[in-house]
Amino acid sequence: MKDGGIRLVIVQGPTASGKSALAMQLAERLDGEIVNADSMQVYRGMDIGTAKPTPQERARVPHHLYDLVTPDVNFTAADFRDHASRVIEEIHRRKKRIILVGGTGLYIRILTRGLADSPGGNQDIREDLEARADREGLAALHRRLADVDPVSAARLHPNDRVRVVRALEVFFMTGRPLSAFQDEHRFADELYRCLKIGINMERELLYRRVEERVDKMMAEGLVAEVAGLLAAGYTADLKAMSSIGYKEICAHLAGEYSLDEAVRLIKRSTRQYAKRQMTWCRRDSEIIWVEYPVKFDSILNTVMEFYH
């Protein structure tokens, strides 16, 4: 086993389920440190809309991989893997426990299983596909993907433009489905010893927590945060600025719709995102599903057994 059998506790689950609070409790009880695995919390200046840990929370427990880059940087899953592997090794050398927390399932899978060996890119093919997406719509591209790579089409949401275009790009470059490259790899290289914990929550409660979180973000000043980013020169078409919460507030500030409508759209999109996160997590048979916070003592015992 690589990396000397470094043990990771991974706290997963949908947005607003309580992952950060559970990770904090575990880190405090186990002399641990928290490593971020959320694709949006790596961006500096995007604090309220990404629900980052507060300065007070970060003072209680060491936190890593927050505020790594500015919003105009295209931070990739491979970038995350490189940063996270270095941080994890450094924490391990100091003999501290490592709590990985986040809702970006792809980041966690690539860190723990490695990257699939798939081809590079082809600019001409990608630009042609992007033009087709603009002209014909994403649904048409997804139907085309279903024709040539039904496995990838079943895995991808029809509105996931980046990954649908990438899957078609690979097929048109190589004549082989992207899923074939991935299945050959099968994410089979175990890089760490992992205990995966998922927070189980009834959908109605989760959706209520989502709406409460959005209301809290608005009260804390999400509009001002987005306005400040725009004033600093970060445009609405950046990858980071087109994420949930920022996209809708950018549109509101551009006069496309009212603030009430922006809030409604943020809540709707966040509920849909939470549902996709749950679907992703449910595919992972290694995740142990827990009730939090009511069963924290049981969760703590499970984690201590894993370490000992």
From TrEMBL:
Function according to Swiss-Prot or TrEMBL: Catalyzes the transfer of a dimethylallyl group onto the adenine at position 37 in tRNAs that read codons beginning with uridine, leading to the formation of N6-(dimethylallyl)adenosine (i(6)A).
InterPro entries: Dimethylallyltransferase (IPR039657), IPT (IPR018022), P-loop_NTPase (IPR027417)
Entry protein name: tRNA dimethylallyltransferase
Cofactor: Mg(2+)
EC number: 2.5.1.75
Assembly behavior: Monomer.
Keyword ATP-binding included in the entry's annotation: yes
Residue runs in coiled coils: none
Keyword terms of this UniProt record: ATP-binding, Magnesium, Nucleotide-binding, Transferase, tRNA processing
Enzyme kind, highest EC tier: transferase
